[in-house]
Structures are given as C-alpha cells and as structure tokens.
Specification:
- The radius of gyration is 23 Å and the shape is globular.
- It has three domains: 163 residues, FAD/NAD(P)-binding domain (3-Layer(bba) Sandwich); 112 residues, FAD/NAD(P)-binding domain, CATH 3.50.50.60; 105 residues, FAD/NAD-linked reductase, C-terminal dimerisation domain (Enolase-like, domain 1).
- The termini are far apart.
- It is an alpha/beta fold.
- It is built from 15 helices and 21 strands.
- Strands 1, 2, 3, 4, 5, 6 and 16 form a seven-stranded mixed sheet that branches. Strands 17-18-21-20-19 form a five-stranded antiparallel sheet, with helices on both faces.
Length: 458
C-alpha cells in the first residue's frame, strides 16, 4: 500500500487544480489518470473544438469589414494542423511534466474506491490520510433510439479529432456541442444537417439566443430540422440515416451523436457508499460528498455546473477546504463554490456567439424573484464599427426587490468578451443605480450596457 495525504482521481483540468492546491500546501498528493493527463477539455473538447471553430469565425469576421482581402474557403489541412498543436498531438508528456514539477505524483491506471480513504489502481492500493477527491468528469449520453447502437457514429471525441472533412454530416442534438460542431464542420466544407428535437436549439438559454443561432447556422448552409424527434437509425448506401417521428428521413455519410453527457461514476466503486453508478455525486459547497466525510468531488461528476471553468473553480475550493481542514466556511470564502448556484457564466462559440450568466427570465421567476426583463438590440457605435450589418441582442434580468442583476445574455459576433463584466455585476450584487456609473468606453460594443440601463429607466 502506498500512503498519501490526498488522492485525486481524474487528471483533467479539474483534478489538476485540486491536486495543485493540496500539493502547493505541502500535502503528499497523487493524481490518478486512466487516459491522458489534461483530460477531455485539453484533447477532445474545449481546446480542439474552439481551434476548429476559430478559422471559420475569422473568415466570416473579415468578410464583414470591406477592404479586407479574404479568400473564399478555409484550408482544412492547415486547420487540423493548428488543432493538433493545441492538443500536443494527443501526447500528455507536457502535462505530466507540469504535474511532477508542481510536486504531484502521477499514477496511470483506472481507480476504484475500495474502502475508507482507500483506492485501488489496477491492483495497486493507495491510501489517503486526509481525503480522496473524485474528478472523473462526464461521458457522452446516448439516447434510446432504436438502431442507434448498431450504426457507426461519432461521439464528440471523434468530431474534434478527425483529420478529414465528412462529405455529409448529420448532427443529432441541439445543445452546445451540437451547434458548435455543426458550424465548425460546415465551415470546413461538410454538408451538415442538424436534428433538434425541440422548437429551437439551446433550450436552457433565453429563447432569442437559440433563434439567433439557428439563423446563423442556416446562413452557413446548414439544414436545421427543429421539432425533429429521431425514432430510428440505420445504415444506408455506406452512410447513416435517421428516421424522424413525422416520417421524414435525414441521411449523411457520418453521424455525430451530441445528445448530452452524464457523470462518469461507472466502475468507480461508488455503489459501496450508497451512490448509483452513472449518476452525480451529491456535494455541498465545500465539495464534500454527502454522508462520506473523507470523500470530495468536483466538476462534471457532481452535476452542479458541468463546465470546465466551473469545475476548476470548484476544485480550487475543494483543495482549499482540504488544506484548511474546514467543515464550514463563509459564503464568499475561497473554500466554497457558491457561484455554482447563481452566477455560472457560459459561452456558446458559434457565430453569432451566445454569452450568458446567472438566471434566465424563466428561471428567475421559478425562483420566486420579482423579475423585470430589459431586452434590446445591440446597436451602438462600437458594434457598427466592429462589422458591417452587425446583428446582436442583449437582455438583462433584474430582481426588482434588490435592483440587482440576476441574469444577463448577449448574442452577437464577439460578445464573449462582454461576459465577465456581467458576471462581476451579478456576483458583486451591484445595484443598477451604481452600475450606471460604470461608464463604458466609446466606441466599443460595451456601450450596450448604457443602452440597457437607459431602457431600464435610468
């Protein structure tokens, strides 16, 4: 048996952050990873997907500014080479070197909880004096569509690591992964069809966000089928066909299934502690797993806020709590992940971009808040200079009892950089009367803040 102070299971960005915190405090820390240190985000999700999206966005942006010489197509080979650079060719040697330099021991293998503070890694047993932290992330969820398990299909991993453009790609799923990868591959030259079961994609965002993204996808030549529930899947003519509930059939050379993810708690031994494999581990704001005082978890595996940046934030809280040995902390302590509840920022990197933080209007009303919504077009000097024909929209959700923002959404080209100001306003509970005195620079797209507050009545 090998003894440590802290065992971290899962070497993605979340696990790395938790391990870095405890190791920096002098605790003997081991990071257990079954695949690549750096995890999903580094090799198959955040980084490679954005690398595939960026060239198409840059070309589209250049076309919106007269006088900029641009070509009429993207070179997929060059795009793939740049993408491969960001993934280090799927080699994690650099990440392992970082971990070792940070005082973290890396153990390769699949971990399983086998007792109190004890973890088995392919037959080798590790013991922790303080805590075990589960940061195993999530895995794709496959819908129960008849025939789907029997046809060749891509997961998001395949879609972000491919080296050839599929002639015709069918994307099943209207969430963030579905819309981003549909646009990335369309701009790389694939004939793309997006199949969305609801009225619009991105159902968890404000409705105008999904509508704007549909318009952007269709402008790129993507066929967007809404209200399209898949009821069958089959192979046809060397490709894949999806049968829809209304009798229509969509087909392509490749099929990407992007219908959500679920916590990666399979084969982890959680059932011995009263939890169900495949379901989230319930945690408090310190990251402690319910009913098991030595077990912590952070990131997608908790089901709280399945985004890389939120997982890293929660991991830093977990590491801080373990180092301090705390069982409670004030709401704004570094040892708690309170932002998970009300101030989660998210960007959808389509064209137009969607940037959102906090609650939608519907979510705020469900929470019992006295809601007022201000929604306007993004039409300021900065947006006009940014691109000819700039089209965007902004909305803020105000809790009238406190006169503070509880939700903000921006939709339009390059609005992601507006998001952190909104996040600060929500986390800081800045009253709109005081926000009025945060003067936006002219001429920038940030002037939309002035227009929102004017529309509110200031």
């Amino acid at each position: 048996m090998s003894d440590y102070d802290v065992i971290v299971i899962g070497g993605g960005p979340v696990g790395e952050n938790a391990a870095a915190r405890t190791a920096a405090a002098g605790l003997r820390t081991v990071l257990v990873e079954a695949e690549r240190v750096g995890g999903e985000c580094s090799y198959w999700a955040c980084m490679p997907s954005k690398a595939l999206l960026r060239p198409g966005h840059a070309l589209a942006a250049a076309r919106r500014v007269p006088g900029v010489p641009v070509g009429d197509r993207i070179d997929p080979v060059a795009v793939f080479a740049r993408r491969d650079g960001f993934t280090s060719g799927w080699d994690d040697a650099g990440q392992v070197e970082w971990a070792t330099g940070a005082g973290i021991e890396v153990v390769r293998g699949r971990a399983r909880l086998v007792g109190e503070r004890r973890v088995s890694v392919d037959g080798r047993e590790l013991a922790a004096t303080r805590a075990v932290v589960v940061c195993t992330g999530s895995v794709p969820r496959t819908p129960p569509v008849p025939g789907l398990a029997d046809v060749p299909s891509w997961t998001s991993r395949d879609a972000t690591s491919a080296h050839e453009v599929p002639p015709a790609l069918v994307v099943l799923g209207g969430g963030v992964v579905g819309v981003e990868l549909a646009q990335a591959w369309a701009r790389l030259g694939s004939d793309v069809t997006l199949v969305v079961s609801g009225d619009r994609p991105l159902p968890r965002f404000e409705p105008f966000a999904g509508d704007a993204v549909v318009a952007g996808l269709r402008a790129d030549g993507i066929t967007v089928e809404t209200g399209a529930r898949a009821v069958s899947a089959s192979t046809v003519d060397g490709g894949v066909a999806l049968g829809l509930a209304d009798g229509r059939v969509v087909s392509g050379s490749h099929l990407l299934v992007a219908t959500g993810r679920q916590p990666a708690t399979f084969d982890l031994g959680v059932e011995a502690f009263g939890f169900t494999p495949g379901q989230a581990l319930p945690v408090d704001d310190l990251g402690r797993v319910s009913g098991v005082d030595w077990l912590y978890a952070a990131g997608d595996v908790t089901g709280r806020a399945p985004l890389t940046h939120q997982g890293k934030y929660a991991a830093r809280a977990v590491g801080t709590a373990i180092v301090a040995g705390t069982t409670s902390a004030p709401p704004w302590s570094a040892a708690v992940a309170t932002a998970d509840h009300t101030a989660v920022p998210q960007v959808v990197f389509t064209d137009p971009e969607v940037a959102f933080v906090g609650r939608t209007a519907a979510q705020a009303r469900e929470a019992g808040l006295d809601v007022r919504v201000v929604e306007i077009d993004i039409a300021v000097a900065g947006s006009s200079l940014h691109a000819d024909g700039y089209t965007g929209r902004a909305a803020m959700v105000v809790d009238e009892r406190t006169r503070t923002l509880v939700g903000v959404t921006f939709v339009g080209p390059d609005v992601a950089e507006l998001l952190h100001a909104a996040t600060i306003a929500i986390v800081g509970e800045v009253p709109v009367d005081r926000l009025w005195h945060a003067v936006p620079a002219y001429p920038t797209i940030s002037e939309v803040w002035l227009r929102l507050l004017e529309a509110y009545g200031l």
